[in-house]
Structure formats: structure tokens, C-alpha cells
Amino acid sequence: MKSSASLALLFCVLVFACGSSSTLQRVQDSEILALPTQNHIVLLNFWATWCKPCIEETPILIRLHEKFPDVKLIGISLDAVENAGAVEKFVRKYKIPYPVMMRSGSEFDETMGKFDPKWTGGLPATFLYKNGQRIYSSLGLLHEAEITEAIERD
Fold first, then answer.
1. Is 57 or 109 the better-scoring residue by pLDDT?
2. Which of 21, 54, 66, 134 gives 124 a disulfide partner, CB atoms 3.0 to 4.6 angstroms apart?
């Protein structure tokens, strides 16, 4: 009887542990710097679940993803790694169709300056790259007409 109870307890622990593990890909600060070269056109959006302008611009990003399927759009959550569950819930709630990654590492201040020297860490922050070269930055709420024009420009 004791072994059955122990086995049942072990099963519950395993189910709970597996059910609570994050499915989000984690990206180290050093790896973030390589993302702009992963496609001809790359749009990186840094955001967090607690950021009201980030929530407000989510529908804009979804529309951009649908309108420009050749653009590799990547959302990078700056939520604490321990908050992965809230990020996953956010992705499901807003039905985000593009990849979302969780940033991890301890070198973000240095990384941030390489995206735009004017960026001090405020969110949201969006960067558009063509052939690995930054051609557009939005520090703060994204303006759909501006980013659309930047994507369509040769």
C-alpha cells in the first residue's frame, strides 16, 4: 500500500513539474545580437507583459506579421525568466502568431546600446533590419504607418 501511495505522489509531482515547464525559447544577450542577420528583413520587438504600451501595440505587430509574411518578426520578452508563465499566457491570450523569446543573461545594458545608443531600456522598443543593417527604430509605442513605410522602402 505504501508503495502505491509513493508511486501516486511521484506521478503527481512529475505531472506538475512537466505541466509547469516553459515552452518559450530562451535567448541569451549575446545571441540577441545575431538575430538581425537571420533573414533579409528582421523586425525585433522588445516588450514585457507589465508594459501598457507593449500591450497596446500587440495588435499592430500581429497585423504587420500578417501583412508582411517575408519579414521575420521576433518578440523578445524582457520579463523576468521566472515570469515565463505570464508570458505564455499573454501569447495565448493575444494569439500572437510570431515567435516570442524570453531574454536571459546579465549583459543586457551592453547589448541594448548596440541596438541603438539612444535606447536606455524603455519599453516597448522596436528595431527593423534589412540585410543586417538597422534602418528603423521605435523607442516607445510603435506607429504602424511609419514601420509599414520603412518595411516597404527599398
1. 57
2. 54
Q: By the 8 A CB rule, do 71 and 41 touch?
A: yes
* Local structure of 92: helix, strand or coil: helix
DSSP string, 38-91: SSSEEEEEEE-TT-HHHHHHHHHHHHHHHH-TTSEEEEEE-S-GGGHHHHHHHH
What cell does 138 get?
521605435
CATH of domain 22-152: 3.40.30.10
Residues 29, 146: Cα–Cα separation, whole Å: 27
The pTM assigned to this predicted structure is 0.83
Provide the pLDDT for residue 114: 85
Distance CA 142, CA 150 (A): 12
Gap between the Cα atoms of 100 and 24, Å rounded: 7
As a whole number of angstroms, the distance between CA 23 and CA 128 comes to 26
Helix (H) or strand (E) holding 25: strand 25-28
Q: At what angle do helices 52-67 and 144-152 cross, to 10 degrees?
A: 40
Cβ atoms of 127 and 134 closer than 8 Å: yes
